[in-house]
Description:
The complex is a heterodimer of chains A (326) and B (343).
Chain A: E1 3-5, H1 6-20, E2 24-28, H2 44-48, E3 53-55, H3 60-72, E4 76-80, H4 84-87, H5 91-98, H6 101-104, E5 114-118, H7 134-138, E6 144-146, H8 151-163, E7 168-172, E8 180-182, E9 196-199, E10 204-208, H9 211-224, E11 230-234, E12 237-239, H10 243-253, E13 256-259, H11 268-279, E14 289-291, H12 302-308, H13 312-322
Parallel strand pairs in A: 2-3, 2-4, 4-5, 5-7, 6-7, 10-11, 10-13, 13-14
Antiparallel strand pairs in A: 1-8, 6-12, 9-11
Chain B: H1 9-12, H2 22-47, H3 62-69, E1 77-81, H4 85-91, H5 95-102, E2 126-130, H6 136-149, E3 156-161, H7 168-179, E4 184-190, E5 193-194, E6 197-198, H8 199-202, E7 219-224, H9 228-245, E8 249-254, H10 274-281, H11 285-296, H12 301-324
Helix pairs in contact in B: 2-3, 2-4, 2-11, 2-12, 3-4, 3-9, 5-12, 6-7
Amino acid sequence: MPIITYREALNQALREEMSRDDRVFIMGEEVGVYNGAYKVSKGLLEEFGENRVVDSPIAELGFSGIGVGAAMAGLRPVIEFMTWNFALLAIDQVVNSAAKMLYMSGGQFNVPIVFRGPNGAALQLGAQHSQAFESWLAHIPGIKVVSPGTPYDAKGLLKSAIRDDNPVVFLEGEMLYNTKGEVPEAEYLIPLGKADVKREGSDCSIITSGKMALVAVQVADQLAKEDIHVDVVDLLTIRPMDVEAIYASVRKTQRAVVLEEGWELCGIGAQVVDFIQRECFDDLDAPVLRVHQADVPMPYAKGLEKIAKPDAAKTIAAIKQVMYRA
Amino acid sequence: MASKKKPDPRRDSQSLRVAGDPALDRELLHSMLLQRRFEEKVGEAYALGKVGGFCHLYIGQEAVSTGIIAQLRPDDYVIGTYRDHGQALVRGITPRAVMAELFGRIDGCSRGKGGSMHMFDRHTNFLGGHGIVGSHVPVAAGVGFAIKYRGGDQVCVCFMGDSVVNIGAFHEALNMAALWKLPVLFVIENNRYGMGTSVERAAAVDDLSRRADGYKGMDGVVIDGMDVHAVRTATEAAIARARTESLPSLLEVRTYRFRGHSMSDAVSGTYRPKEELDEYQTMDPIFSLRDAMVIAGTLTVAEWDAMEHEVAATVQDAWDFADASPEPPPAALYEDVLVDTTS
Lengths: 326, 343
């Protein structure tokens, strides 16, 4: 099976879906002539032309609204945000337009649009460029929120996101673009709303998604050497959340750690813990712990940034704590 | 504080309000009168608690919707703001469906889920009343983008209030519409106040049509919005430009609302003197056309009375229909959040 980067996987998904459906177009800053700020759209302008690979001015609110309007009129836009930090300028279109249109029109106008781009911290980019917005976005009914961690997942999920008749928020990771993984040559789709168990184990569950899924796998592999077997539930889609996969895992392991890139308060982990306490209360042998970013804006200094981020060491410590092995 | 410093077509062209083609005039008069009597009825319904939430009446501005929407094709698109009842009616959503929506009933054009600010209708390409100032302007540009993408010759008409010119989305949308030559008519309904703040107190350039100068190839036009013929004539050219050359226009239609911003504020209020309101009411778009037709001999008093009666019956029928329509069932709560399809 070919081994390709996360970036190439996304590029393949875009290319395949644009070839399949001529209503699909990509719009955003530097997606065309520049070949994409992170090269996700590399080669697409050449292949599909400037009508379908549209370089926009730096105007997130404007071009995301153009995407919504185009979707209402029957097209299937893929709107690229250079990063989700910039998407805050466009959040009105995501929350007030895309997410609400079907409901407030009484089911008449769906908005088949994908808003995609890198989310979360990279390396030393400072406070304004290092934020994970999963919980902000997952709070909103009317949209789906997807957060793939591997090239395989990224490709299969992006293809499904583009075909979905709803607005889909697609969170990538700047640190993921160069990561590699196996991606089959034959076409495949991964359904939205289904989690994937990345490692099977019976001692403790890690519930996670996106870039943190890679950390969780690393943790599982490392702890296996200590004879601690971790079940890694990669949510893949945060809204709608595959709660059954969470329950199945926790009922098996009876212990859980929720690992996320964002902040603690009102984070994804808070919701996951709530689901677990409601449905798996009698299954639990220990309180569920959470691993997340420190409750501060991201510092620039290398050492401070490292200790602000959730990582394998913090996750291992949490697992050992819920197993009373600390 | 009526500003007298600039020429205002609302004041200058009164003598021009003459009747044209009798059949067309009658149609225009009817369209405006329906909106007027409908909105008056909505005001009553609001007072009785049959309409809830925020409710913004269109009274005084009817020449704008009638002058523009009545000359569109069925496959064109219309999108607007929360002051959307009049436009919805002119576009062809039935008075029954609009009233039922206002009453929050299942037979409303948005199945009772939108309300006053969110009229939608797929059959007439009415893409909604939108409740966030400026938010729908890029959406309109996107509709224009889709038209051009498919090589169609439809146009999209985007109605907005005068306060929109000061919000960022307006600039972003007009810039891209001009840059990419999108077939959109951006129609500013300048009723002189964004809620209670006058244009002069909000806009550094208060000659709003001049905003078009910032966008290459975009025409900026000032139109007397109290004269339905003036609106029609000016819009005809803009529609043609959009349809045949795929070019956007910025139309500043100077109008006036005869009621408060919404239902919670007084008709004149602290922000505009009663004399100003009185003055604009002498330019009432409906009665000036009626009077011109009577003078021209194309409308008799009896015909006018008959039109009033017919419109009153239509509006009462809409009320009765809405009142009898059921509320959405509890099961509707979780419907229409997402569609269960892919394509």
